[in-house]
């Protein structure tokens, strides 16, 4: 074998420069356009909502752009009914998401870890509640509460919200538990931890991110739920119910501001989760 | 196939102190689709204090089940498990004074090295400063000092392995159970960790029970090995005993390479049985007093004990076995050359020939050769 390198001739260099990756019909140009179209479709309604929170509209009607103002942020709590509805919604969402977080974690853990009598039907019921129409669920909850003689109000709303969001938490937690190495819990037992200590010191911290996203999902489902809430609310007004009621007399810009703030909180949590998982995968 | 030899199994523990681990008539069955599947059949076993004991066998042989019964993750269907002479059958895993190193390491991903290692001591309510001292000590033994704050995912496989080891050892268990702990490491690291493990075991003086399917690993590290197959301990003994005198056909085949031949005894003379194939092809094997003329024997010969001659063997070798044959395969390995020879005894023989000096002496494919070995290198195995 010869040890001298062959100098590339000018022709081969030229040839190499000519060979470029061929652009397909779905190349960058079209793909970019398509991507931005989708993003616009998803984001436009939200942008409109946020923008009209800054609209300097004279009355309660907030449908045409007049001018830019911050004043609605200052007069956020001008309508006591709206403020109360928002507070009711937030309280119900917190209680409902925590309750379904606790119960859904239990179900999700059991389904992910063990096979037991009825685990198959439990799985089925969970997916049934997730996919059944809210209208039907609301109507049947109403007749259930009425026939049970339960007065409709914040409690029945909360029960209803827990009922439909519990499956979402359970599904998220179950997925995490199923990928959890069984021997990690065995290791805890091996090192002297009883079942209780093993759960709280080892299992719970490991599946906590899944529980957290389950609870966030439950919160999001609860705070903007309209249909089931309408059936089970009685005279109680939640944030979505108040807005629905206000459509006839005009939705004030404060609603846009509140919507913007709720959206901002959601974006914040999503960003935190994103940053945490990306920094984790970078270290892996 | 022979049944476990109870007397031999117990011989070591008879020498004074109580064994660290003892199995008395242990049986383990699994229920699978309504059928009872035996995982471990009637097993008696005594593992001595401070011993490096290996459970060796192919996957599904019951070695892991045996270890999990020591740890308390599985309960025997029948029989007793004793730790330090105390019956622990039915005692939960978290109340047993043994610790385990898992194949997957099973480190707690949300805790750093220090917290992982301290986990067991915290459960035992050991004082904080005592925990700090003992964790520091054990991390030094496994050469992880300075890694206290690292999370498991920030460490290499070898380092995680050491954390798992430290996490178990720091509790000063009666016995340390290791479930194929080196399986996930690459060859070089594995060999390094084998030496390391042996050193650590000497340093801490704790009984190690080591589950592996790697016979090389078991031979190099263990004081004693139990070779398991289909839920039964086929042979139990020192690495040397198991290698030199395999008790069953399975052991002979599983540990290293063995040449197996069988034949009928022509005559017995001075504790040696003679099996003839032709007038010059014969196998001589040491036998017990029970063997008679006409008995069928199975004989195992290790490939490195055999001499390969290209001409008729010298007179000195004729006291032992001689088989003529034809070379069918030659594989050069650097330090040795491996020959496959089809012999007059009917079986193909593998021969390892050291490439000592005369490299031009290599036999070629198709060459007529003679295999000879001394009588003591033939080993009769139970049929």
Automatic annotation (TrEMBL), chain A:
CDD domains: TM_PBP2 (cd06261)
Keyword match Phosphoprotein: no
Membrane spanning stretches: 30-54, 85-112, 124-146, 152-173, 206-231, 251-273
Domain ABC transmembrane type-1: 86-273
Membrane topology reported for the UniProt record: Multi-pass membrane protein
Pfam (any one): BPD_transp_1
Subcellular location(s) of the protein: Cell membrane
Keyword terms of this UniProt record: Cell membrane, Membrane, Transmembrane, Transmembrane helix, Transport
SUPFAM superfamilies linked to this entry: MetI-like (SSF161098)
InterPro entries for this protein: Bact_Polyamine_Transport (IPR051789), MetI-like (IPR000515), MetI-like_sf (IPR035906)
Keyword Glycoprotein carried by entry: no
Matching PANTHER family: PUTRESCINE TRANSPORT SYSTEM PERMEASE PROTEIN POTI
Family: Belongs to the binding-protein-dependent transport system permease family. CysTW subfamily.
Name listed for the protein in its UniProt record: ABC transporter permease
Organism: Paractinoplanes ovalisporus
From TrEMBL, chain B:
SUPFAM superfamilies, A to Z: MOP-like (SSF50331), P-loop containing nucleoside triphosphate hydrolases (SSF52540)
Catalysed reaction, written as an equation: ATP + H2O + polyamine-[polyamine-binding protein]Side 1 = ADP + phosphate + polyamineSide 2 + [polyamine-binding protein]Side 1
Domain ABC transporter intervals: 21-255
Molecular-function GO term, any one: ATP binding
Alphabetized UniProt keyword annotations: ATP-binding, Cell membrane, Membrane, Nucleotide-binding, Translocase, Transport
Keyword Transport: yes
EC number: 7.6.2.11
Organism domain of life: Bacteria
The keyword Phosphoprotein appears for this protein: no
InterPro entries according to UniProt: AAA+_ATPase, ABC_SmlMolc_Importer, ABC_transporter-like_ATP-bd, ABC_transporter-like_CS, Mo/tungstate-bd_C_term_dom, P-loop_NTPase, PotA-like, PotA_ATP-bd
Subunit structure: The complex is composed of two ATP-binding proteins (PotA), two transmembrane proteins (PotB and PotC) and a solute-binding protein (PotD).
NCBIfam families associated with the record: potA
Similarity comment: family membership: Belongs to the ABC transporter superfamily. Spermidine/putrescine importer (TC 3.A.1.11.1) family.
Function: Part of the ABC transporter complex PotABCD involved in spermidine/putrescine import. Responsible for energy coupling to the transport system.
Protein name as annotated: Spermidine/putrescine import ATP-binding protein PotA
Native organism: Paractinoplanes ovalisporus
